[in-house]
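Work Package 4 report. The design task specified in the project plan requires that, given a folded chain encoded as structure tokens, an amino acid be chosen for each position. We show below one input record used in the internal validation round.
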């Protein structure tokens, strides 16, 4: 039996799901889509946090992901004034980055 088959068997035993691709992720079967989105977002944020700010696309990636992170964190509540101010500021940063990319 190969690794993936053994992993699937183990996951089934513990009521988990295996997503198999280039990266293998194991989730609890009952994970909701917001939590799953947060997991994927954390992976993408790792790229933004570790990419040098001098990369031309860094600002687009970083600010878009930070907006997304805040929205997912507040998904089941409300965005307050501080949240909206933060999102507005990041949108301005996105505009500045787009303007720099346009030359």
């Amino acid at each position: 039996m190969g690794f993936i088959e053994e992993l699937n068997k183990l996951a089934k035993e513990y009521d988990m799901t295996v997503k198999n691709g280039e990266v293998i992720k194991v989730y609890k079967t009952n994970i909701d889509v917001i939590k799953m989105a947060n997991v994927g977002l954390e992976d993408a944020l790792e790229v933004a946090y570790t990419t040098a700010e001098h990369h031309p696309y860094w600002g687009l990636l970083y600010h878009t992901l930070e907006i997304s992170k805040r929205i997912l964190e507040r998904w089941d509540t409300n965005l307050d004034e501080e949240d909206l101010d933060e999102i507005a500021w990041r949108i301005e940063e996105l505009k500045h980055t787009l303007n720099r990319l346009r030359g």
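The CA atoms of residues 4 and 79 lie 41 Å apart. Validation will be extended to a larger panel in the next phase.
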